[in-house]
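ugh finaly. both done.
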Amino acid sequence: MLYNLRKFLSILLAVAALCSCSGGRGHYAQVTGTAQSVSYAVKFNMDGVNVPLENIRDSIDAILTKIDTSLSGYNKKSLLARFNAGEVIRPNDIFIDMYRLGYRVWERSGGAVDCAAAPLYDAWGFGFRNSSFPTDAEIQALLEKCGQKNLPPELSLAPDGTLDPSSMGNPKLNYNAVAQGYTSDVIARYLYGIGVKDMLVDIGEIWCCGLNPSGEPWAVAVDRPGEDEGYRDVWSSEGNACGITTSGNYRKFFIKDGKKYSHTINPLTGYPVEHSLLSATVVSKVSAAESDAIATWCMVVGLEASEKLILDDPQLEGYLTFADDSGNLREWISPGFKLRN
């Protein structure tokens, strides 16, 4: 299942398993585990790889641990959590890379995806803490003081390599929109580096390349919104290298005074979105982090803008589900989004 209930995997490894098998093509291995009740799986072809499987498992473990201790908003000892608490930190390469990525995503989306709008997400209870229903005045105050618009494109470190949040106005960051995809990309880069050519990296969001153990393109089931949820279509990678992510509004929400409030907050308005788009599955030839960010962008801007966004970029394909005027479930599929027959 692609849909991510929280849009961020706080990676504290609880279980790790290794297995390998000889399939119809090559010698495939799999590293699996669970983190915060979310399963992950990294599958890859060992042909031509001289690194022992146990070492690969340990390297993936180390990547997940480093990202958790750098970017998790749920790990109170992570660099991100300490930064958000106002503590002076010494950013590592992961923290700096993510900050740059967050700025680029904000700039490209015209503010629709804003990793520095964490106080808004928190105010609605969809961030790193619970919250009561915010008032209009509270929302307006948050809009004025938070957001990437108030921050520079690059972090300015002290001569000793430290970063004082107070020098930036004590911003609060939340990388839920890109962190899982970014994690898949980092693991994929490691696998490419040791000679892997066929892989599927599923850390909540997916990067895949090449063929599966049966010699067929990797296939991913697309989750179905609505009361009769169930897999209805299967996407085929056709052997291409790409990231694929689904974001949706149909599971995480709350109802107050009979009105349904989506977990997708528009950082430009400060309020949950209100439109017909229920879910967006985005394929990116660039990276899983991009597919992750674009899927969130789609859920902010709605159906028509999402269609244009996907069609205007040759690196993207998409599968959008929405409700029509009668409340019936409908779908829009871009020409290059390949469904398995």
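ok and the 2nd:
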Amino acid sequence: MADRKSQRVAALADALGEHRVLHVRRAAELLKVSEMTVRRDVANNPASFQFLGGHIMLAGEREGEAPYELGLAANQHASAKRAACRHALKHVARGDTIYLDCGTTLVHLVEMLPENADVSVVCCAMNVAERLARRPDIRMIMLGGLYHPSTASFSGNPGLETLDQLGINIALLSAAGIDFTRGATCAHFHEVPVKQKVIGLAQRCHLVADRSKIGVQKPAFFAPMSAFQSLITEEGEQRVK
């Protein structure tokens, strides 16, 4: 028994060495044990691990250091984000090529796509790509470039050049701030070129966010509200043009 516990602890440490932060559910999947067992192992080894909401990280990591910002955001307004994605799902049709933005909202939509959906999904974020990779029935196109741990996403010319080669039917974009006069903003300037490129290429663009983002303005502006066909929140869809 002790050997199995030691092996689990060592395996969890190795996984965190690679990913730096893991949701408890994902750690349980990797270790092939229950979430309760993972929580017990973490609680029994405070010198090795610590909790951050529903996520695990190595003890001694500085709070707020990337990519834990993403881990914290994942726990905020999760039910509202899922509800917004359920409303957004109606815009996805068989045969579409879809862009799913970075952040912690649109990851929920991946799990809502029906089996054999016959869609191609373009993404630039590792958390979205990780869930897409579990869906062999979905064609995934990952944009590359410079990796940003704060958002677990990529930016730069490689991704922008890949976008030039794609035909995107529908783009579902996220925002950290929504002001009906100023427009959509995000917290990180590296997100802006990809968002703007996608908006310029996609046939239809929708902004998907929970209502806590409304009235908020972040430093990096990326689009006026007129760039989107609609704003989709947990309460439903609001036409903006």
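summary for the 2nd one i guess: The mean pLDDT is 88.
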